[in-house]
Write a structure and sequence with these properties.
By secondary structure, this protein is α/β, with parallel strands linked by helices. It contains 5 helices and 16 strands. Strands 1-2-3-4-5-7-9-11-13-14 form a 10-stranded mixed beta sheet, covered by helices on one side. A 6-stranded mixed beta sheet has the order 6-8-10-12-15-16, with no helix packed on it. It starts with 5 loop residues before the first strand and ends with a strand.
């Protein structure tokens, strides 16, 4: 295996380990283990925190668990995964590892070109996550984001488009993150820690005694307003 298959760099949170998406997974894990064993003091210094960048490779729960266990045996901690795959995102959630979705596209471009969708309406790109986002998780998308579940306090969603939460919204959300002030945020129960649309920011009221109801947040007259989701 070529050395370029595994790239290790210093990172703000410790070490950033980038894995070649075309190599056999177990060979990558074994090779990374050998590199760590050759200079264990260097890799465990600074807290031994590891962020794993797997790119577009879909990593299963078993595969992510194998590298997590390997790192743990060597005194290292897998704190975050950077991915373009919803499969990897689900695997990280199952193992309670923070994950950042770095690209909304989860289908290879070559495969996407072979699929034709007939519709009278224009569509738009986005990502759908069928899982509750726990505290510490971050989802980023250059399209829309739909969460089929809750967004817990400490979780964060940053989307260039709209954000729709089919559940309780308690974390931080930023719709229209690239400056789109026409973006909206919808939730079945809207009580975010912080809500941003474009360059506008608001927070939920302190009174939590109200009855939960579906609501939509959008910009009107240069401020964020929240109305019933109709």
């Amino acid at each position: 295996m070529q050395e370029q298959a595994i790239i290790i760099k210093g990172f703000r949170d410790g070490l950033l380990v980038t894995l070649d998406p075309n190599e056999v997974w177990q060979e990558l894990v074994d090779h990374l283990a050998n590199r760590i064993d050759e200079n264990s003091t260097f890799y465990t210094s600074g807290g031994g925190r590891v962020t794993l960048d797997v790119g577009a490779r879909p990593v299963t729960r078993h595969e992510l668990g194998s590298i997590n266990a390997m790192l743990d045996r060597r005194g290292l901690m897998l704190v975050s995964v950077m991915t373009e795959s919803s499969t990897t995102l689900d695997a990280a959630a199952a193992l309670d590892v923070r994950a950042n979705l770095t690209n909304q596209a989860v289908t290879p471009a070559s495969a996407a070109k072979e699929i034709e969708i007939s519709s009278e309406e224009d569509g738009s790109s986005g990502v759908m996550i069928r899982k509750t986002l726990r505290g510490g998780r971050t989802v980023r998308s250059q399209g829309h984001v739909v969460i089929w579940g809750d967004v817990n306090p400490g979780a964060e969603i940053i989307a260039a488009g709209d954000i729709i939460v089919w559940g309780r919204l308690r974390g931080n959300v930023h719709a229209g993150a690239n400056g789109d002030e026409s973006a909206i945020v919808c939730a079945l129960d809207m009580m975010p820690t912080q809500l941003r649309i474009g360059g506008y920011i608001t927070v939920a009221p302190a009174d939590n005694r109200r009855k939960p109801r579906p609501e939509t947040a959008f910009i009107r007259n240069r401020q964020i307003v929240v109305e019933a989701w109709k």
